[in-house]
Amino acid sequence: MSETIFALSSGAPPAALAVIRISGKEAGKALSALAGALPEPRRASLRTLRVSRETVLDQALVLWFPGPATATGEDLAELHLHGGRAVVRAVEAALAGLEHAGEGQPALSIRPAEPGEFTRRAFANGRIDLAEAEGLADLLSAETELQRRAAIAMAGGALSQQVHAWRDRVLGASAGVEAVLDFSDEDDVAALPTSFYADLASLAEELETWLSRPRAEALREGLRIVLAGPPNAGKSTLFNALVEDEAAITAPLAGTTRDVLIRAVALDGVPFAFIDTAGLRDGTDDAIEAIGVDRARGELERADLVLWLGPEGEGPELAWEIDAQIDREGHDAKAHARHRISAKTGEGLDDLRRDLVSHGRSCLPRPGELALNRRQGELLSQALTGLRGAGVQSDLLILAEELRTARVAFDSLIGRATTEDMLDALFGRFCIGK
Ligand SMILES: Nc1nc2c(ncn2[C@@H]2O[C@H](COP(=O)(O)OP(=O)(O)OP(=O)(O)O)[C@@H](O)[C@H]2O)c(=O)[nH]1
Ligand SMILES: [Mg+2]
């Protein structure tokens, strides 16, 4: 942790500008080794960067942020370079070279940063908590407007504030229990406040509401829409129409699709993952097709929604009944289809898309609404279990223990109690330079 790190924090060169960040105890020394005397803090200054008196690297805007009130909580420097590949490479090489003593320059403890290492330091130094770091990771990978809005709320600490508030309520309840336990040694008969159990119940209800909301993963990965039905139902043709690409092979041959094909598409800013599957049929003597059918069944189980193109009423529960290929002569119409479409002529497709978008909006977090990810959801469930246990407990020692469980879960949620594995997994999601 004591080493100073550096990395390109802007996108891949070439570009107009490239930003290299340097963070750590020796960031100031590294900056002045290249740019001369340290500039005024938090003010952009134009400098000539050099590795030696003769060798000019670039003309750059440099910024100096002395810690600890910085993004990482450490001394931090930024070099805004011309964004050419060779420029970036030369400056990176010069920074890496500072590891060795040079012309009147002692060796520095400096190295290239690992993925997410700047953010990890921000977390280690208490600049952001875990929920905020997760929000930041989502923000950087956000591709749709809905994802961006949810991530920005999380990164801004909205969930963290909520968790702190819940944690304080649990602490208050614990203090009440401790007080009674302390008094019980004396003659005075102490009791829990009259509203004690009602307060716990209302907190538990609040957590339940949060847990019942749509989860962040659906937002991140898109709503899983599986196209299913027997061979030749027209699944791949509809899939291609929905993803607007000839991604899947279609043919009059039954059993054309064997593998599972997934395409992520945003419709009206709502993220979907459309999934084409092998036609469902039993007793095929083609071993590969049989594997495809197994996979298709697996996808049905994981689907958020199934579009059923097979015989009416034979699809999974809650599947949307789709009457496909309605343009075909002698087409046998379904009696109660949610949509009648022809992927060939395009008939009915706009209605289907609109329906998907409005359904998607209803099962994804609403714009700006905080969505829990799996980790956060699990911890909140643990907290809820503790609270529910406490809510029916009259033995004060056990009650205190249940409340402690809830508190520990809240602590883990915001990262007061974490494991290295978990941190590796989270910060590994970031790119280098973040
Ligand atoms: N006229 C008409 N033909 C269609 C339509 N949709 C699909 N087809 C044709 O029906 C045949 C089967 O279509 P696919 O999309 O490959 O069917 P599938 O359900 O993916 O079939 P498998 O992959 O074998 O399970 C192809 O020849 C398509 O061109 C449609 O809306 N109208
Ligand atoms: Mg197919």
UniProtKB/TrEMBL annotation:
Gene3D superfamilies: P-loop containing nucleotide triphosphate hydrolases (3.40.50.300), Probable tRNA modification gtpase trme, domain 1 (3.30.1360.120), tRNA modification GTPase MnmE domain 2 (1.20.120.430). Binds 1 potassium ion per subunit. Its cofactor is K(+). (6S)-5-formyl-5,6,7,8-tetrahydrofolate binds at R21, E78, R127, K434. It comes from the Bacteria. Its EC number is 3.6.-.-. Residues 224-311 form the G domain. Residues 130-431 form the MnmE helical domain. Residues 4-127 form the GTP-binding protein TrmE N-terminal domain. Keywords: Cytoplasm, GTP-binding, Hydrolase, Magnesium, Metal-binding, Nucleotide-binding, Potassium, tRNA processing. It is found in: Cytoplasm. GTP binds at residues 232-237, 251-257, 276-279. Exhibits a very high intrinsic GTPase hydrolysis rate. Involved in the addition of a carboxymethylaminomethyl (cmnm) group at the wobble position (U34) of certain tRNAs, forming tRNA-cmnm(5)s(2)U34. Homodimer. Heterotetramer of two MnmE and two MnmG subunits. Belongs to the TRAFAC class TrmE-Era-EngA-EngB-Septin-like GTPase superfamily. TrmE GTPase family. This is tRNA modification GTPase MnmE.
